[in-house]
Specification:
This protein has helices at residues 5-8, 10-22, 28-45, 51-60, 73-86, 123-127, 168-182, 200-205, 221-244, 257-267, 285-289, 299-308, 311-319, 338-344, 349-354, 369-374, 382-386, 397-400, 405-421, 454-457, 470-476, 478-495, and strands at residues 103-109, 113-121, 138-146, 155-159, 185-189, 250-255, 275-278, 436-440, 462-466. The chain is of the alpha/beta class and 500 residues long.
Length: 500
């Protein structure tokens, strides 16, 4: 019997993984091209279990997340206090003035559109001074406007997903096709902590990434919360500016982390608005504790800081307000069948050793939700699964070697993530019938097991499921994302024809 394509090519994939490790010193652009080509090929080959693709793609990337740890305790305290304000739409109605200044500093003419570059100062700098790194204070965007409108003057704001630096990816895959297909303008906002421009001149003056951050790998856990707070306020600035300029209807979208950030922004908007979050869900806690990205997290540093500094357990933990039905679910299902992914990847002993915490690679996660819930493994205990070799240093060995430290650190991660990212901790959007969620059935990056669904949090929203996983959907399903945007805008126009 002939072996299926994915089985025949498994050795080739492992060869590509090894080659990528050896070329870790190559340029980011060259490595990215190699990764994309490999993904495109195997996405077509693997007719079964596309989540394999998510796992292998994560293995090809070499960076670690949160290498600096949790962030300063005082910053976390300020963020949690501000979350209580920004999570309540009524409390933050007047945080951003109606006439908040926005500037256009460059315009390019193209055959089918005009591309405007603009900027403004992030409101977060005024409301929580010093919480943003200096490089991220100036928010920058690109506004792509059709030369001929088909109907009305619709604008969709696109927020960036993880690693989506600059504007070219969103502009090429989403904005330009949307002009041709629907005559719809797009506004692309650059994330805090991300690179804006790559030319030598603009790198010196035009980026939002701290100098000590490696590409899109956030240095501290707290950086993710700062990014979310900034994007909520910056989206409000842009929506109000677009209203002043006479554009209508307005909506928001994003893919992966961009979809999640767009969801947060819409919870703060006081009017009905189309929202199309793609490949995102209800909380970021599962992403970093059970998804494939959980193995990219620098748990060694997080555990050490949690053990040494009692402020996290004694003070920060008491500030965590979210206590929903899915909060702190850290039972055996979190780590059950962790070995099944190693079996899936056919990893040898050497492969496993190279993926350990001593290597620089962000290894494949043990939390792909379908395997956690469906595959019977060997019942590896949490302590056994997460145990790290301890190094000899000056810290208190009793604190850092306690058997429960790993479980406590993951539980703390889930707690702080739920506090600042769980949709149930924010206001429900004004009209949930205008929300169309697009999800991948076998998404290994965004686990849906063990967390509240968006339908439970936002009754009336629509969820559309795609076959396959996160990476294949991102690469090959952009047309489905765009169609969901058109459907959301059409639904809004039928329901609110005079709301402008």
């Amino acid at each position: 019997m002939t072996s299926p394509p994915w089985k025949e090519n498994e050795q080739t994939v492992r060869t590509v993984v090894a080659r990528t490790r050896r070329t870790a010193a190559d340029s980011f652009e060259e490595r990215s091209t190699d990764v994309v080509c490999t993904v495109e090929y195997y996405a077509r080959c693997w007719s079964m279990g596309v989540s394999r693709l998510d796992v292998f793609y994560r293995r090809l990337l070499l960076t670690k997340l949160f290498i600096g740890g949790w962030g300063k305790p005082e910053d976390l305290k300020r963020i949690f206090e501000f979350r209580k304000i920004i999570g309540d739409r009524e409390k933050c109605k007047y945080l951003v003035p109606e006439d908040y200044p926005v500037y256009i500093n460059k315009t390019e003419e193209h055959a089918d559109c005009q591309i405007h570059d603009g900027f403004f100062i992030s409101p977060l700098e005024h409301l929580v001074p010093g919480i943003l790194p200096p490089e991220a204070v100036k928010a920058r965007f690109q506004f792509i406007v059709p030369k001929r409108w088909k109907k009305n003057r619709p604008v969709c704001i696109h927020l960036a997903g993880t690693g989506d630096h600059f504007f070219w990816r969103r502009r090429t895959l989403m904005a330009r096709p949307m002009i041709k297909e629907a005559g719809m303008a797009s506004l692309l906002l650059e994330n805090p902590y991300y690179i804006l421009l790559f030319s030598l001149t603009d790198l010196l003056h035009g980026y939002r990434k701290p100098k000590d951050q490696l590409r899109s790998s956030l240095k501290n856990v707290s950086d993710l919360f700062v990014m979310g707070g900034a994007l909520i306020l910056e989206s409000t600035v842009l929506l109000r500016w677009l209203e002043r300029e006479g554009y209508w209807p307005l909506g928001m979208t994003g893919i992966s982390m961009g979809g999640y950030m767009a969801s947060l922004a819409v919870t703060n908007w006081p009017k009905p608005i189309p929202l199309i979050p793609c490949l995102s869900w209800s909380t970021a806690s599962s992403v970093f504790t059970t998804g494939v990205l959980s193995k990219a997290v620098n748990w060694t540093e997080l555990e050490k800081q949690y053990a040494i500094n009692s402020v996290y357990e004694e003070e920060i933990m008491k500030l965590l307000g979210y206590c929903g039905a899915d909060s702190f679910k850290m039972g055996p299902e979190l780590v059950r069948n962790a070995d099944s992914l190693e079996h899936l990847l056919c990893l040898s002993g050497d492969d496993r050793e190279s993926m350990g915490p001593k290597g620089g690679e962000a290894e494949a996660g043990d939390g792909v939700h379908q395997f956690l819930s469906a595959v019977n493994g060997r019942g590896t205990s949490l302590d056994t699964l997460l145990r790290r070799p301890q190094t000899n240093n000056t810290m208190d060995s009793a604190k850092c070697c306690r058997p429960s430290l790993h479980r406590e650190s993951i539980s703390f991660m889930k707690g702080v993530m739920d506090e600042c990212t769980h949709m149930a901790n924010f206001s429900v959007p004004v009209d949930t019938s205008l929300i169309i969620v697009v999800q991948a059935k076998e998404d290994a990056y965004i686990p849906r097991t063990g967390v509240l669904s968006l339908q439970e949090i936002w009754p009336g929203c629509e969820v559309r499921y795609l076959n396959g996983g996160h990476i294949s959907a991102y690469l090959f399903k952009q047309n489905i994302f765009r169609q969901a945007i058109y459907d959301g805008f059409n639904r809004f126009c039928l329901k609110y024809p005079n709301l402008h």
